């Protein structure tokens, strides 16, 4: 595997020198941009084929500056696009073959509110077809049907999906990389449905109001309450686990 990733310029990681580096040195080089990076995470990405460091006769890993660039690119694509590792690997391999590729349009979340993120030349996508969803998430039809059986995703009346389904699918894939199966996520779906029901109770009177302005205000209030609910949920999970996310 030859590592010539795109998109790594401007992040300063390549300036670690031209010699080979230990995994500890790589950790320090990446930590400024990725404060939650760990040795275990680097080893996991190696095991998944995202990077291939050299090995000394004694078995120690030695990373080249291009290895570190590639790691930074992988971590950036996970952080900024919520892409599953299979999609990242295919994207990088295609780039190294000189093929023109672009990332799937996935959603990010800022301050608890979903924000669609697409390539600069693309319009915001409100709906996505089944085949496009499968390609973006890097899964097969059987896996998608399994997720649907657990209520994690559901097509609209015309068979298409809301664009946020791509974010849900990619997160299900990433959780699966840690051994969390779709059936385990039913509890999260149930909690989300209860939270959505609570928000709906608050805004329902606004939607039924006679004043058109008040009814229009219901959507803005729904978004505001959804954002607060997501932030509270995240804070409660962090508190329960005793961790702080960056």
Describe the structure.
The structure is a single chain. The protein has 246 residues and is mainly alpha-helical. It is 52% helix and 7% strand. It has nine helices and six strands, in the order H-H-E-E-H-H-E-E-E-H-H-E-H-H-H. The protein has helices at 23-31, 39-47, 65-81, 85-96, 130-137, 141-149, 164-176, 186-207, 212-241; strands spanning 54-55, 61-62, 107-110, 113-116, 127-128, 161-162. The strands form three sheets. Strands 1-2 form a two-stranded antiparallel ribbon. Strands 3-4 form a two-stranded antiparallel sheet. Strands 5-6 form a two-stranded antiparallel ribbon. A hairpin with a 2-residue loop joins strand 3 and strand 4. Mean pLDDT is 78; it is low at 1-18 and 106-125.
Core attributes:
246 residues, 3 domains, two-stranded antiparallel ribbon, single chain, mainly alpha
Topology:
Elements: H1 23-31, H2 39-47, E1 54-55, E2 61-62, H3 65-81, H4 85-96, E3 107-110, E4 113-116, E5 127-128, H5 130-137, H6 141-149, E6 161-162, H7 164-176, H8 186-207, H9 212-241
Antiparallel strand pairs: 1-2, 3-4, 5-6
Helix pairs in contact: 8-9
